[in-house]
Amino acid sequence: MTDEELFAELTEVVASTDPLPPPVLAAAAEAGAVTAPRGIRLHEVDPAPGMRGDDLIMLRAYGVTVRVELGEAVTGVVTGTGGVVELRTPAGSWFAEIDPAGRFSVEGLPRGPVSLRVHGDALLVGEWMTW
């Protein structure tokens, strides 16, 4: 199996196992055409012992780790890839560049349903969660 074939297969798995919630699809339909998300699924993992807070989320996939802290701003660190972090909500998407140290920060994100994507060497897609 080539890398392209593996990526295509993984893309189909993510698209079929992590569909957009109906309220998000309805909001997107009002805003215009929307396509199904494609990419490799990020899985939530338990933070390392000693890491603080209920507002800390760790996501991981294929050597990439995303540590996200939910607060006044959504901040985090990405290891294993560079690129752009996208935080999706029913109200739209917010984007932040991943700096050379792996950090990102997004301000003004409304509380409620949110999904994280990392646009790096590959598209990594997090599950929908509420904060």
Show the helix and strand layout:
Blueprint: H1 3-17, H2 22-31, E1 40-41, E2 43-45, E3 56-61, E4 64-70, E5 73-79, E6 84-89, E7 92-97, E8 103-107, E9 113-119, E10 123-125, E11 129-130
Parallel strand pairs: 1-10
Antiparallel strand pairs: 2-3, 3-4, 4-5, 5-8, 6-7, 6-9, 9-10, 9-11
Strand content is: 35-45%
The total beta strand count reads: 11
**How large is the count of helical segments?**
2
Unreliable residue runs: none
Q: SSE order in H/E notation? A: HHEEEEEEEEEEE
Helix-strand makeup class: alpha+beta
Distance between the termini: 39 Å
State mean pLDDT (0 to 100 scale). 83
Nearest-angstrom radius of gyration? 15 Å
Describe, in plain words, how this protein is organized in 3D.
The protein is α+β, with helices and mostly antiparallel strands. The protein is built from two helices and eleven strands; from the N terminus they run H-H-E-E-E-E-E-E-E-E-E-E-E. Strand 6 and strand 7 form a beta hairpin.
